[in-house]
Write a structure and sequence with these properties.
Blueprint lengths: L3 H13 L11 H19 L19 H20 L2 H32 L3 H17 L10 H16 L1
Helix pairs in contact: 1-2, 3-4, 4-5
Length: 166
């Protein structure tokens, strides 16, 4: 990882290195190899490699369907035309293609979700996987979440009691 403390350490190691040992070789290739080896070892010791695990997402099979690819290509073309022309007809065409694209993806996802349990060896588990994927995906879109705090609720009931007694 390259940062300021490591850079200072690297500079210090380069300063402390005895560079005269490189000149003892007659052959320039050997001199270069020795120089490169010293530089490389200092670099490796001062700037350790940070390994990051990268997980490549597998594309869903719905994107491989020809009709979805065709609509996506038309949608991208219509978007470019809409941005260039900026007229009402191209905007309507873009909106129509966008809705058609969304509908085709939704129908493909429904088809895929229906086929998955049929192919699975453990059908019950496969059905629950489909259900959980839908529930977990939709649970993040909690638009009707209550903003009522417990204190507000207590105040409401306390005021309700006062209203009945008066």
């Amino acid at each position: 990882m390259i940062n300021d403390p490591n850079t200072h350490l690297f500079k210090e190691k380069l300063r402390m290195t005895d560079w005269l040992q490189i000149t003892q070789y007659e052959d320039t290739k050997q001199c270069y190899d020795e120089f490169h080896e010293i530089l490389h070892s200092h670099f490796e010791s001062c700037f350790p490699v940070k390994k990051i695990k990268i997980i490549k997402m597998k594309p869903r099979p719905i994107w491989n369907k020809a009709d979805i690819k065709n609509i996506k290509h038309k949608l991208e073309t219509a978007e470019i035309i809409m941005r260039v022309k900026k007229d009402e007809n191209s905007t309507e065409l873009y909106k129509h293609l966008k809705n058609a694209f969304k509908e085709s993806i939704e129908s493909s996802v429904r088809e895929q979700d229906a086929k998955y349990p049929k192919k699975a060896t453990n059908k019950s588990k496969a059905i629950w996987e489909v259900i959980n994927s839908k529930i977990k995906h939709n649970s993040t879109k909690d638009e009707n979440k209550s903003t009522l705090s417990p204190e507000d609720l207590n105040k409401f009931f306390l005021n309700l009691e006062n209203k009945f007694h008066s």
